[in-house]
């Protein structure tokens, strides 16, 4: 099978999705302007009142609607003037969006907010293995990707020497390079299997085999008398523009990355 390398630099920091340019609004000429009727003026005034976040009338009306077993979509159909108010309420209160998803999924309004407290382990200190130069990934899109240009990102390891991390630098990726036409499909995206890692560092304890150089590790290739290892999956955290490693059979040893 012929390989199709797909090479590109990082650092573009392109937005997730298409860029949209908006033209400037032009004021209508007096010839094309239509007279505003009293009915239209009343509708505009009602819309302005509905746009207020602190509109007590709409809030009371919505609560009464929920009390009767109605949902938000039905409320908006019956009260189109409330759309702007609901949109602004959601923008200022993210929990309203979550409540809307709950209602859509369950078919009934959310009646409570549950706060969850959990412990999250993070590494305050990591050991830097070297400056990350190259990642080669057997992509889930069927292509081989060669990732370069990390701008000083460090390849690191934890104290147990069983987990690698990428810290700092520029880790931003473009969704279209991975055949995602409409932006990243998830917040956490599995991109494929890492088959080669290259990093720049100095190893003084390896004698003639050490020194200052770009060292590389290739997974899936067996050394004499050893079984082939499996590289980690590369995960892309789209909101934070961060690369993560998951799984794999590698270990961090004094000589380098093993298997």
Short account of what is shown:
The protein has 259 residues and is of the alpha+beta class. The protein has 5 helices and 11 strands.
Write the layout of secondary structure elements.
Layout: E1 5-9, H1 38-50, H2 56-67, H3 72-78, H4 83-92, H5 94-106, E2 127-139, E3 144-148, E4 154-157, E5 164-167, E6 188-203, E7 211-218, E8 233-237, E9 242-246, E10 251-253, E11 256-258
Parallel strand pairs: 1-3
Antiparallel strand pairs: 2-3, 2-4, 2-6, 4-5, 6-7, 6-8, 8-9, 10-11
Helix pairs in contact: 4-5
Descriptive account of the structure:
This protein is of the alpha+beta class. The chain folds into 2 domains: 43-106, no CATH class; 120-258, no CATH class. The protein is built from 5 helices and 11 strands, in the order βαααααββββββββββ. It has helices at residues 38-50, 56-67, 72-78, 83-92, 94-106; strands at residues 5-9, 127-139, 144-148, 154-157, 164-167, 188-203, 211-218, 233-237, 242-246, 251-253, 256-258. Strands 1, 2, 3, 4, 5, 6, 7, 8 and 9 form a 9-stranded mixed beta sheet that branches. Strands 10-11 form a two-stranded antiparallel ribbon. A hairpin with a 6-residue loop joins β4 (154-157) and β5.
Strand content: 25-35%
User: How large is the radius of gyration?
Assistant: 28 Å
> Structural class of the secondary structure composition?
alpha+beta
Oligomer: single chain
Mean pLDDT: 77
Distance between the termini: 25 Å
Point out poorly predicted stretches: 1-34, 49-54
Descriptive labels:
alpha+beta; nine-stranded mixed β-sheet; two-stranded antiparallel sheet; 5 helices
């Amino acid at each position: 099978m012929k390989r199709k390398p797909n090479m590109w630099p990082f650092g573009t920091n392109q937005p997730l999705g298409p860029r949209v340019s908006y033209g400037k609004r032009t004021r209508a000429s007096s010839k094309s302007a239509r007279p505003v009727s009293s009915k239209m003026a009343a509708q505009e005034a009602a819309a302005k009142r509905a746009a207020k976040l602190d509109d007590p009338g709409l809030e009371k009306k919505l609560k009464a609607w929920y009390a009767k077993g109605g949902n938000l979509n039905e409320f908006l159909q019956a009260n189109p003037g409330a759309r702007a108010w609901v949109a602004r309420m959601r923008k200022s209160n993210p929990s309203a969006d979550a409540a809307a998803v709950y209602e859509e999924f369950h078919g009934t309004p959310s009646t409570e907010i549950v706060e969850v407290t959990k412990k999250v382990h993070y590494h305050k200190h990591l050991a830097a293995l070297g400056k990350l130069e190259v990642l080669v990934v057997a992509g889930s899109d069927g292509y081989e990707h060669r990732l370069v240009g990390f701008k000083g990102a460090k390849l690191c390891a934890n104290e147990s020497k069983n987990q690698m991390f990428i810290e700092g630098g520029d880790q931003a990726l473009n969704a279209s390079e991975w055949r995602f036409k409409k932006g990243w499909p998830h917040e956490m995206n599995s991109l494929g299997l890492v088959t080669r890692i290259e990093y720049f560092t100095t190893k003084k304890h390896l004698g003639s085999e050490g020194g200052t150089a770009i060292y590389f590790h290739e997974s899936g290739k067996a050394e004499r008398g050893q079984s082939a290892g499996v590289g980690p999956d590369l995960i892309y955290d789209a909101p934070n523009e961060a690369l993560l490693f998951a799984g794999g059979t590698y270990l961090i040893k004094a000589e380098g990355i093993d298997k």
